Amino acid sequence: MTASELKSSQETGESGKDLFLRPFHQSLPMQLMAAREEVMLRFRPHLHAHGLTDQQWRIIRALMEVESREILDLSDVCGIHPASLSRILPKLDAAGIINRRTNKADQRRVIVTIAQKGRTLFNQLAPESERLYSSIASDIGYDLLDEAYDVLERMIEALRTKRRAPKESLAE
After folding, report:
1. What is the distance between the alpha carbons of residues 32 and 116, in angstroms, rounded to a whole number?
2. What is the pLDDT of residues 2-51, one digit of tens each?
3. Fewer Cβ in 10 A, N or C end of the chain?
4. pLDDT tens per residue across span 92-123
5. 110 φ, ψ to 5°?
6. What is the pTM of this model?
7. Which domains, and CATH codes, for the chain?
8. What are the C-alpha distances in Å from 118 to residues 60, 84, 161?
9. What is the pLDDT of residues 141-169, one digit of tens each?
10. Whole-angstrom Cα distance, residue 137 to residue 53?
């Protein structure tokens, strides 16, 4: 059932079922999770061989692109809940992969940076990661991969914009 067919059946009640909900295999969250899992099945052995989890690698990747990040920004960029991040960061810090320090202007805020050991680890993993990206592109086609990036970026932006839009005033 396509999205437009589902909308039509919901409006007219033509599905003949008590609940008007798309089939489970067409659940957007489930399809996104399934796609993510298929991709990560290729990356996990590589990460695990270096003693890293998916989340730890996302943190390293995010920190390699900037000088530093505050924890809430790092949480948002990596898609890791702040409570989970607060359990992961001490392990990475103890391993010498990252550095944490408090913000001088506001002691409640913590700044995270990549340490030299983290940079070295990143440089060790990057070539194989790029090879895995190339393998995925080869398997599904470079055009489809580019299209997937484009669609996902547009979808994320549209949903973020909608979520962050100010609520209309009830007084209006």
Report:
1. 34
2. 666 656 555 555 555 566 788 888 899 999 999 999 999 999 999 999 99
3. C
4. 999 999 999 987 878 788 899 999 999 999 99
5. -110, 135
6. 0.80
7. 36-126 (1.10.10.10)
8. 7, 20, 34
9. 999 999 999 999 999 999 988 888 776 54
10. 23
